[in-house]
Write a structure and sequence with these properties.
Phosphorylase superfamily protein, single chain, Nucleoside_phosphorylase_sf, 5-stranded mixed barrel, purine-nucleoside phosphorylase activity, Rossmann fold, alpha/beta, Nucleoside_phosphorylase_d, 10 strands
Amino acid sequence: MPIPNNGDKYDSPALFSAADAIDGQGGDTGVEIPKAVIITYQRDFFEKILAERTGDPIPIVRDFEVHPIDETVGVVVGFSIGAPATGTVAENLIAAGAEALCIVGGSGTLQRSIEPTDAIISDEAIRDEGVSYHYLPPEAEAEPSPELTERLEARFEESEVPTHRGTTWTTSAFYRETVAEIEEYADAGVVSVEMEAAALFAVAEFRGVDAAAVFDIGDLLTGEEWDPGIEYENVQPKLLDPAIAALHDHLNAEGSDADGRDGNGES
């Protein structure tokens, strides 16, 4: 049976929202958090950020909090990996006031031409998980925000990290990435495989906020072999500054657009 089971889902209101859940669990949707938030998953990377550049955490609910990097950009971690966790975290951040979300995460690559020290910017996600189908109909594409993605790419072009832009394959079945799928997607030019992008893009589109994703390379998957990347360099720390700069660029541009509309009294 396809997901969702109920075909009328897209026109039906939810019983409760992230804002309801936060307020009902002792949180506060009225707290002021940075307008842009980086979502990451690797604890060692997060601990490095905490040690060097974040302010006091801002609690949203229970053990979930945002760590501000500066006045407009924060970072979150401390939850599980995958689409369901990412979708829930995105909903909570949006309910608390976030306007732009960016994954800085890890992925595998399906292309031998992509080096272990490169990065990948996603411009579309193949929806091979479940979360996105509860936000977008099956025929819809899961895509990041074009403007934020362009700004992300521009900042990475100025960085020391070689970067590739292309389609990512989001799957929830880590141990069922089959040879047939890998060969098919590699031949089609798909650049990466990960577990979160499609969910973030779908939630962001549904809620009307901006989203993007950039990944480092943790392993190589081909139809003949799996290279688990034991000797790969973790380049995620090098991805942080370009991502922060792109989020600043985006918020500044969006603010300028809003000022222009307000000043003219029209859109």
